[in-house]
What does this fold into?
Amino acid sequence: MDELEGVRRKYAQRIRDVLWRCHRVRLSDDLVSAFARIPREAFLGPAPWLVRGAPPATAWQRLTSRLAPRRYSSRDWSTRDPHQLYRDVAVAIDAARGLNNGQPSGLALWIQLLDLRRGDRVLHIGCGLGYYTALMAALVAPGEVIGVEIDATLARLAGANLASVDSVFVVNGDGAHHDPGPVDAILVNAGVTHPQTLWLDRLRPGGRMLLPLTNHEGIGMMLKVTSQPAGYAARFVSKLLIFHCAGARDVQYSERLASQLAGNAWRSVQSLRRDSHSPDAECWFHGQEFCLSARPIG
It folds into this structure.
């Protein structure tokens, strides 16, 4: 028996608890099972691993934390212990470039909100080393997941990591321009300034897409878009800080996003419009081929 099996089960349950406590989102049994079964360390390369977050507190630190700030909580730290990967922390993939295997509770929220089903065909843009790609593959089997990674080294490693996972294909390319064919779900795991026409065109009826709209600093919000008979429903679901998606950014849009996201008007967004129209009072973010609008669909 894998010595980490029990640790993974507790890790999966903690993620479920965090999502309910912080977002009132119920993690599906299938996703909890995937977190409990799939070894994170198998996707992160050889130890030591650089953990982006607080090291586990000692008994003395827990005791004294009531009297003084926990200064140790802001450090990145290195570990050879795979048990420490089963905490709600990001782990560096390329520390020099700020590339991480993201925080599990954040990715769990996004994957849950994709409403993945058996047989779905999924596009994962910015798949990194493939850990979260593998989790999605477990949910849609015998469906298919296409992982796209622009970095050639990461794409090669992801392909090796996922070689034993059925119906997962890794592509080295720019996710903004790679044509996957029709898909049921898209997870964009890098910051963009606007939805790409190709992504919207490839969403099947009922398809779901999550894309992070971010400013020049990578700060922004995750937008969920759902293809419906009357149009595209859209709503923001979480705040985030994420690495840029190089092929899906526009400098002017980035500057406008920084201003738009600063207030609370984003709460009004209900749809993504693709029809030609002049900007009006319902337009929260009006672009050349899209508009995030307060107008409901239907």
